[in-house]
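Predicting holo structure, nicotinamide-adenine-dinucleotide bound.
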Amino acid sequence: MSAGTEQERAVVAAVPDGLFIGGEWRPAAAGGVFSVEDPSLARELRTVADADADDAAAAAAAAADAQESWAATAPRERSEILRRGYELLIERREELALLMTLEMGKPLAEARGEVMYAAEFFRWFAEEAVRIEGGYQASPDGKDRFVVMKRPVGPVLLITPWNFPLAMGTRKIGPAIAAGCTMIIKPAEQTPLSMLKLAEILTEAGLPAGVLNVLTTSRPGEVVEPLMRGGVIRKLSFTGSTAVGRLLIEQSAEQVLRVSLELGGNAPFIVFDDADLDKAVEGAMAAKMRNIGEACTAANRMYVHASVADEFAERLAARMDALTVGRGTDGADVGPLIDEAGRTKVDELVADAVQRGAKVLTGGRHAEGEGYFYAPTVMTGVSPDSALMSQEIFGPVAPILTFIDEDEVIAAANDTEYGLVSYLFTENLHRAFRVSEKLDTGMIGLNKGVVSNPAAPFGGVKASGLGREGGRVGIDEFLETRYLAMPLG
Ligand code: NAD
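Done. Tokens:
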């Protein structure tokens, strides 16, 4: 049990116990549990049920049983459930934010922001649930009529990462409910508590038994693979690393599953000599430090025009230096990294960059505390062959490189297997459009360090994924198109 305050212990203890299958909370079939840690204390918070393949089979049966009746519910009814879910998330914001901070480490202010962001997906898809459109058209020879309809794709498997424990869930659950799909969700083993709480809230919002099933497990491969191959699941929606995404694409081949994948990123952050440096530094803080740098959208490589690079680096280093590092519950600006492995990876990437000639302006070391803290870091003179140029840093480290020529920086920005998001700072409108059209990413932040919004289509190209979440297209990922052909007489 948690070593924190009474309030912290109460919030953790209030998370339902067990797996959520067919509307019931039950222990894992084999009785196992696994430990969830508070990364700011490197200590156990509590244990949760450890599902195996038998539990996966039970969840698949529950999702299959509920699919027909759930697909037949009125869109308005599904919309109202999502709307109530939205309201309950807002109402419980403080409790959910504290729980998220305890299991993931992010500062409370950011956790509150994530609860709002997560809730917005329910509000958005409550509105989309009643706007699923079809069509009626004449065949080219005029003899037939085509009726085009959308229907739910069927039971879906949703897999989420640890970095946004709530929002990555609602971004998938929202459109699945709106479309009329039943689902099994498997949260990351580091952060299952927020998802268990969300299942309780959705039940209170009126979601029928079997529509949402939650499997927590320390052995994701053993639970997921039989679901992928089992014949019940019709679609996978996955957010996580590109390596696991690739494995799941392979597994999806057997049952020819539809797949949506939100994978890794390696975002370039480009500052031209005509940029407003106030906006660029502000944008860099947001693009780098949101979520302690543990975001797929995090600025991973900063390319700054040589004429403004020194000033930009100094100003960024001063801002980073002023940040407080500590427990997210104690009002710190920067929380711990998720675990020791995450911090070791940051250590290695920084050491490699330094060894290749980078200069550390601030940070470059662990920060004090029992947890996995790392000091906000700015490095200049980073060599393009450093490992962090091709790998996600997933920590509070800003590497700065310089450039002179527009074509040169576009080529450098695109020189990665990833293509999630890029950031571009310039006050020249022509340059903004010219460069935007050449950047090979699914999203672009123009003079802005955060692009995520439930009303916009989030997603990447190349090894950053397939499909889009949110926006008008978000629900399409959970719908099939069917048409009926008939002669007029
Ligand atoms: P991860 O791939 O290790 O884990 C993601 C999920 O996959 C977890 O639920 C995990 O349990 C599960 N998983 C792990 N091995 C599996 C297997 N063999 N079979 C089935 N499922 C398995 O990633 P992570 O470390 O939790 O998250 C960080 C990654 O997620 C980063 O690469 C980040 O860029 C990416 N991410 C992408 C987006 C996006 O929208 N593009 C958003 C957030 C995070």
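The longest strand covers residues 144-152.
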